[in-house]
Amino acid sequence: MPRRPLLLIAATVCAALHAAGVLVAHPVWRGAEVLSLALLLAYALAGGLPWPRWPVPAALAVLLVDAIRTMPAAPGGEGSGWRFLDGTEPIDVTAGVEASLSAGGAMLVATVLLLVGFRGRARRRPAVLAALAALPVVGYAVVRVVDIRRDLVAEDRPYPSGPDLTDVTSAMVLAVLPALALAVAALALAALLAGRGRRLAAAGAAALALVALRLIDAGIEAVPLSWSVGDGTALFAWYAITPTTAMPQPVPALTVAVELTAYLLLFAGLTGADRAEPAVPAPVAG
Questions:
Q1: What is the pLDDT of residues 57-107, one digit of tens each?
Q2: Is the peptide bond prior to 52 cis by the omega test (within 30 degrees of 0)?
Q3: Euclidean distance between CA atoms 255 and 107, whole angstroms
Q4: Taxonomically, which superkingdom (predicted)?
Q5: Which residues of the chain fall below pLDDT 50?
Q6: With b meaning 16 or more CB within 10 Å and e meaning fewer, what string describes 249-261?
Q7: How far apart are CA 257 and CA 247, in angstroms?
Q8: pTM
Q9: What is the 3 state secondary structure string of 45-59?
Q10: Per DSSP, what are the bridge partners of residue 49?
Q11: Residue ranges covered by each domain of the chain
């Protein structure tokens, strides 16, 4: 079997190991995600880079650095623990946006790098489809913010010193902005790639917009609010799929699986010769 398919298979296996570790809240192997992205980079380089040459390795380098930064802690390490709120805590307006950027900032940067590198005029049909696909993501973010604000207004607060409604609203809006930026950038990239015939890569870019839905709730969850506020519209919260003893993190695991699948599709679909420009072959040793 040629070397390149083996690299992609190995990257897929490592991605599956990482997702399995997230699912059971115990890493199968701490370096699985890092190795998966490194193998994907090797796969892209071995297959020849599309013109221009820099976007694919630059985007993968960003993702690789972030994977190293977020490598799971060693078993037996100190956990984050629980935090109990009584409604009197001041609101950190930037808590949500910081959490969103920490979780999805690398995805956003990598997507923007690809979008800038392969910039051009998208065809009308893919552009229209991308715009339509962005509407549910934007709509979900708006519904979440409005629902949380409505619940806070209707809540009979026992503590007059509770969080200010304006601060909460500002925190919610800021929390969803990185996710919205990711969704828009990913769908714009998908439209651009689909117009160039890179349908596999376009599917991977579109899958990143699904990750943005979870990122919306992840940012909101980072803002300290009482448990039940906005609970009725939280479709992608960490508890949307009931955790069990055997599978304590189903939603994070599903998110990781979609994210890594998106990378595999995106970068596998970007390798090889482009219709307009020849691929730049990787140097052959020896």
A1: 999 999 999 999 999 877 655 544 444 454 555 678 899 999 999 999 999
A2: yes
A3: 13
A4: Bacteria
A5: 1, 79-84, 86, 158-160, 273-286
A6: bbbbbbbbbbbbb
A7: 15
A8: 0.88
A9: HHHCECCCCCHHHHH
A10: 280
A11: 1-71+106-119+247-286, 124-237
